């Protein structure tokens, strides 16, 4: 993300102009754009020229009896009502009524802005929901070029593989390969097994070559139980070498693959399911190479939370809690050592709730605690989302938290889901 | 065979059995010398006790009845000799009838049928051949599913009505109870009726004389009877003919069970001989049955009514005594002949066993202790099912059961009438490198399932890559990768048979990464062999928390295995130390009992896979002389197979899908969890919801027309594309599809947890080959392990050892499952997380089902 301009007043209201540079930036934008904000960007719109007026209501596709319809590029500002993000397609749509005068579109007409890479947009926040610390931090981290680590990850087990791209803030499942491998059996049809295994590796290799730009990836992680990963890597290198020799159309990719040989990282994991990524990303081998990355930090923190929760009983009190009420109570007592919070909570349409969570984060930080905003597109963040999206590792046990009635949970659910 | 006979003879020096008797017995026991000897001894004792051999006569006769049924379809071959024998019967019947016991005469008749041929061998050969070659519907003589029982019951009720009608019409029948033997011999209303009609002028006062005259009459007529007709008349044949829709007048009208009036009509018409035959046939069989069943007649309620009066206060033995105490010298046959006949009867036969089993059930008649057991071993399993079968074991049932089309096999009947060995599935477990594969390789080698040349080759090849000690493991580790790495990676399945039992070995991998494969293997097994490396430190390493000894034991227990054999392996490494063996035992036993294996269900065998001590052959090492108990194979043979519901709707877990060599057929392997399957049947594959036709079935590589629950089968399917099948799918009856759960609640026991289970925890659900990602939707309650009472509602998290009710949601494609209540196999799940087993549980309730059931 490129920060082009920033005009904020003391309260935090004002506008920031940003230019997304890579797919992950759209994710940041998605986290920044809340309902009620004014978003201004270049867009296309079909305009129907009327004889009488010079501008029309021009809902796309109106059947106008007279005049000609024309698709023009224009810059529109909308009052955001809805945002929609598709991580795998890398598309962000924001829709709402037009908020600024335009020669072609009348005020209040609905429009959907498609934010695209390399096209700047201006996001203005109004005084009632100004730029808060979390949002500003998002801007800062999004604009930090050093954080653009992108890692290719393949988790696989015999017959089943997930090919993912892991960026600082997103895990994108690129392709899933599933090939039924017959079991080994005595002598005669063992060939069927071997053939299917080769077919499987070939399919995974093709998918990897299609989705991974080996030159730009920081690392390529191959994770599997048993020896599957090892064999896949062997197959990749062998077939790449063959391919390069034969000089086929994919020789370029394969040349790069061989060149990036040292980027490959073999990791052990329990299964080929995508949530095994969580386990992969906190593996020592991965941490050693990617320690400074956000996803590795998130995975490690979540792991720590679980282990604290687990040992809680023996250690004379649980020092890890989850759930908004419990965490809020812990924050009130100044007990929070690490706050784990999902960015989903900051995307709430309810300004009050957003402010509440922002305040919570600020409070923890002011108390000297650490607040880690999890990306809900990572496996760790997804998991955190599963248990309310907010959790805390405490400095000391607070027995009263246990007594908090579980009826709260329903309130929480209502808060969370809507 | 001769060899076996010689052995039996040797073993029975003190008894006076004839060659033929022995031969017969040996044949009956599939040349199993031990069993034959036991059986003959039992017989001998019984003879000694009673000085009577009558029960055997009946049973023999009954067995011939069975053979009649079996041989129906290929009768032309055997009919020839039987006709000759039947002629003989005409000589004996009238004479025997002088005993005033038609029962005996009928029995006699039944036996004499086969007198014309060298009895022991040829007769059995005949029957055997016809048995195997039988291409047409099975008669299912020993049928016994609940459905069939219901059918039989309804028929019996009908019969009862007719009986009442007959009683009104023929008051003479009231005489029957006066001659217990007669009435017991003829429990069916038909028989009294025959008496009435056949000898209308006979004074009713003497039932005995009636029967006498009747039998002689019958005998005379049967002398010149048409062979074909006589064939058609045997009750089994009747049913067969009825089933196949043939319209021989006598057959259609002669069904003795229900068409009583028509039967009498036929009799008075011009086919007397045939009727006589049928009477004899059915009567002797029934008499056999009824005498055997009399103490337990309540098992077949309608018949009980019919028999009740006759049997009043009498058990089978008494009746037999009554019958057999009649002096034999009334027979016009020579003394010698009579003896011969008696001897024929004295021979033991499977029907003795059947009768005994029935008697046991009833609890009053004489019992040879080993009877039921033997039946069980012969019939390949299912004791309860068999007993149920016994209940409905009768000719009536048999001829009544004609509801299915010609092609359709009544598998339950076929199963119970088949003579399959006891089938034992066991999974071999243990920590990595405990020597599981080697132990099993050695076992296979020692029982002769692997020839020495193959082993030599493995030894050579293995030592070539520096893994000489892995030669035996290579028997099971077939893939190049496994051999190279010296690690079992996937479950290997092998079969072998000992003299008594057919075994299926599932050699599970011990490595942590392959626990899913181990789960797949374990869920196909009924028993477990836990292999322990007794070397110093190795046992301890395997027994730690991260070791697989504990995990495997817990898993296999939670997958439903109750009986475990612990093979304390590699004792050669600790110089056969008894101390070490005891140490292992003492460390392990508390853990195993905590896991739920009771002490009586656990046994320990010290052995060495590498040297082969105490595996098949008892060790002769002086160092191991402290161990006197059973070897591993003996322990395995002592297992009794697990009872399964073979009449239930089909549920088959697919373990593998592959394309057959040259043919386009899609082959699957799998295990039948419930019900049965047969060639030609249409089955439903879940979750794809595609139907497929069963082209062929093979059990342990032997083709078969059908298979039942508990079998590990290979099935060729047609009319389905391979994309619709995956390992882990379920094949089920089209009428009873297995559900595909999206969310469900389960009662789980948390294992040793590294991290607690909380709401939203991602887990993998395993059941057999099926794996699916899931997440915990809700922790409903923590419950007390022992009482099942809820101790805490809505817990925040679950920690190690807690039992809880949770709701789970399947992510991705759906998961075919049933509740534990409906299916023990499909209702068990294992939850794993990050490569550790976190919990095992049972499905309590399926909350929602996947909507789009057609997922490709």
Automatic annotation (TrEMBL), chain A:
Organism (species): Lipomyces orientalis
Highest classification ranks of the organism: Eukaryota, Fungi, Dikarya, Ascomycota, Saccharomycotina
Protein name as annotated: Uncharacterized protein
TrEMBL record, chain B:
Protein name (record): Uncharacterized protein
Higher taxonomy: Eukaryota, Fungi, Dikarya, Ascomycota, Saccharomycotina
């Amino acid at each position: 993300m490129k920060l082009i301009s920033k005009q904020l007043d003391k309260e935090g209201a004002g506008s920031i102009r940003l230019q997304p540079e890579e797919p992950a930036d759209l994710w940041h934008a998605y986290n920044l754009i809340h309902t009620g904000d004014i978003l201004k960007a270049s867009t296309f719109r079909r305009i129907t020229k009327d004889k009488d007026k010079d501008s029309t209501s021009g809902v796309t596709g109106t059947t106008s009896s007279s005049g000609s319809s024309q698709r023009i590029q224009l810059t529109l500002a909308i009052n955001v009502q809805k945002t929609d993000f598709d991580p795998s397609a890398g598309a962000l749509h924001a829709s709402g009524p037009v908020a600024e005068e335009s020669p072609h579109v009348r005020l209040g007409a609905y429009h959907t802005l498609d934010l695209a890479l390399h096209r700047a947009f201006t996001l203005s926040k109004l005084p009632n929901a100004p730029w808060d610390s979390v949002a500003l931090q998002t801007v800062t981290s999004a604009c930090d070029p050093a954080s653009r680590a992108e890692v290719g990850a393949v988790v696989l087990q015999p017959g089943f593989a997930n090919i993912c791209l892991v960026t600082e803030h997103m895990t994108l499942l690129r392709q899933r390969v599933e090939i039924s491998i017959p079991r080994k059996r005595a002598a005669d049809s063992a060939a069927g097994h071997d053939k299917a295994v080769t077919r499987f590796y070939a399919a995974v290799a093709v998918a990897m070559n299609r989705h991974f730009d080996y030159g730009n990836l920081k690392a390529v992680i191959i994770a599997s139980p048993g020896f599957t990963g090892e064999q896949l890597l062997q197959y990749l290198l062998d077939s790449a070498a063959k391919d390069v020799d034969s000089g086929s159309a994919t020789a370029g990719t394969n040349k790069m693959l061989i060149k990036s040989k040292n980027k490959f990282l073999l990791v052990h994991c329990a299964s080929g399911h995508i949530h095994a990524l969580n386990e992969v990303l906190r593996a020592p081998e991965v941490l050693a190479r990617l320690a400074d990355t956000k996803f590795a930090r998130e995975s490690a923190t979540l792991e720590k939370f679980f282990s604290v929760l687990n040992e809680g009983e023996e250690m004379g009190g649980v020092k890890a809690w989850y759930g908004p009420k419990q965490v809020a109570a812990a924050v009130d007592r100044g007990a929070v050592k690490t706050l784990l919070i999902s960015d989903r909570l900051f995307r709430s349409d309810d300004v009050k709730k957003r402010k509440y969570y922002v305040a919570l984060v600020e409070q923890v930080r002011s108390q000297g605690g650490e607040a880690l905003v999890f990306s809900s597109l990572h496996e760790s963040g997804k998991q955190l989302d599963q248990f309310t999206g907010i959790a805390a590792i405490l400095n000391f046990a607070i027995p009263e938290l246990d007594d908090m009635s579980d009826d709260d949970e329903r309130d929480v659910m209502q808060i969370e889901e809507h | 065979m001769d060899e076996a006979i010689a052995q039996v003879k040797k073993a029975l020096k003190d008894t006076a059995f004839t060659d033929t008797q022995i031969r017969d017995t040996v044949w009956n026991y599939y040349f199993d010398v031990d069993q034959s000897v036991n059986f003959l001894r039992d017989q001998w004792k019984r003879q000694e006790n009673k000085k009577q051999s009558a029960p055997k006569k009946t049973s023999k006769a009954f067995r011939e009845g069975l053979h009649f049924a079996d041989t129906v379809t290929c009768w032309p071959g055997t009919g020839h000799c039987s006709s000759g024998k039947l002629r003989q019967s005409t000589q004996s019947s009238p004479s025997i009838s002088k005993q005033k016991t038609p029962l005996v005469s009928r029995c006699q008749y039944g036996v004499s049928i086969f007198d014309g041929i060298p009895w022991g061998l040829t007769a059995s050969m005949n029957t055997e051949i016809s048995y195997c070659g039988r291409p047409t519907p099975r008669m299912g003589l020993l049928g016994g599913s609940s459905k069939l029982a219901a059918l039989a019951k309804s028929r019996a009720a009908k019969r009862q009505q007719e009986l009442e009608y007959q009683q009104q019409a023929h008051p003479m029948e009231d005489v029957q109870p006066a001659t217990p033997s007669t009435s017991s011999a003829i429990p069916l209303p038909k028989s009294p009726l025959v008496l009435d009609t056949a000898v209308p002028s006979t004074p009713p006062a003497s039932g005995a004389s009636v029967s006498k005259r009747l039998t002689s009459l019958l005998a005379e007529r049967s002398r010149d009877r048409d062979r074909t007709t006589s064939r058609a008349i045997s009750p089994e044949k009747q049913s067969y003919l009825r089933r196949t829709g043939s319209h021989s007048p006598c057959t259609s009208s002669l069904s003795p069970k229900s068409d009583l009036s028509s039967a009498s009509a036929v009799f008075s018409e011009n086919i007397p001989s045939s009727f006589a035959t049928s009477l004899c046939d059915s009567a002797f069989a029934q008499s056999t049955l009824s005498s055997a069943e009399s103490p337990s007649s309540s098992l077949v309620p309608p018949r009980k009514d019919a028999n009740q009066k006759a049997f009043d206060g009498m058990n089978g033995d008494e009746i037999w005594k009554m019958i057999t105490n009649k002096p034999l010298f009334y027979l016009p046959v020579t003394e010698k002949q009579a003896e011969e006949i008696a001897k024929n009867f004295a021979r033991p036969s499977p029907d003795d066993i059947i009768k005994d089993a029935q008697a046991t059930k009833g609890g009053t008649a004489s019992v040879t202790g080993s009877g039921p057991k033997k039946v069980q071993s012969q019939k390949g399993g299912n004791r309860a099912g068999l007993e149920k079968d016994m209940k409905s074991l009768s000719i009536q049932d048999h001829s009544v059961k004609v509801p299915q089309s010609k092609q359709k096999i009544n598998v339950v009947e076929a199963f119970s009438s088949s003579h399959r060995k006891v089938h034992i599935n066991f999974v071999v477990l243990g920590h990595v490198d405990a020597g599981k594969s080697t132990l099993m390789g050695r076992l296979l080698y020692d029982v002769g399932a692997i020839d020495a040349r193959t082993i030599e080759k493995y030894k050579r090849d293995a030592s070539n890559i520096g893994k000489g000690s892995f030669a035996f493991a290579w028997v099971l580790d077939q893939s190049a990768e496994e051999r190279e790495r010296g690690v079992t990676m996937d479950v290997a399945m092998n079969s072998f048979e000992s003299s008594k039992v057919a075994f299926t070995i599932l050699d599970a991998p011990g490595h942590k990464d392959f626990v899913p494969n181990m789960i797949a293997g374990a869920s196909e097994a009924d028993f477990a062999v836990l292999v322990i490396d007794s070397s110093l430190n190795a046992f301890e390493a395997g027994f730690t928390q991260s070791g697989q000894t504990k995990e495997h034991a817990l898993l296999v227990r939670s997958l439903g295995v109750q009986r475990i054999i612990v093979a304390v392996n590699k004792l050669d490494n600790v110089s056969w130390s008894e101390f070490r063996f005891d140490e292992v035992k003492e460390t392990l036993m508390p853990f195993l009992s905590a896991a739920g294996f009771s002490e009586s269900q656990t046994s320990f065998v010290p052995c060495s896979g590498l040297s082969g001590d105490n595996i098949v052959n008892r060790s002769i090492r002086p160092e191991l002389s402290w161990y006197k108990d059973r070897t591993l194979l003996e322990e395995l043979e002592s297992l009794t197979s697990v009872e399964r519901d073979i009449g239930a709707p089909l549920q088959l877990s697919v373990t593998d899908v592959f394309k057959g060599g040259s043919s386009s057929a899609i082959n699957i392997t799998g295990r039948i969890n419930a019900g049965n399957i047969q060639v030609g049947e249409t089955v439903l594959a879940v979750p794809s919801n595609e139907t497929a036709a069963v082209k062929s079935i093979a059990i342990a590589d032997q083709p078969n027309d059908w298979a039942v629950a508990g079998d590990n089968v290979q099935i060729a399917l047609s009319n389905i594309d391979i994309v619709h099948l995956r390992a882990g799918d379920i094949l089920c009856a089209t009428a009873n599809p297995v559900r595909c759960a999206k969310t469900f609640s389960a009662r789980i026991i948390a294992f040793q947890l590294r991290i607690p289970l909380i709401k939203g925890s991602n887990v993998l659900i395993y059941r057999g080959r099926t794996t699916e990602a899931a997440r915990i939707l809700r922790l409903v309650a923590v419950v007390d392990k022992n009482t099942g009472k809820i101790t805490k509602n809505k817990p925040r998290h679950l920690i190690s050892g807690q039992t809880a009710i949770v709701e789970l949601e399947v992510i991705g494609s759906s998961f075919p499952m049933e509740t534990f209540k409906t299916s023990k196999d499909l209702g068990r799940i294992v939850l794993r997380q990050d490569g550790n087993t976190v919990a095992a549980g049972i499905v309590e309730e399926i909350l929602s089902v996947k909507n789009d059931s057609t997922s490709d």
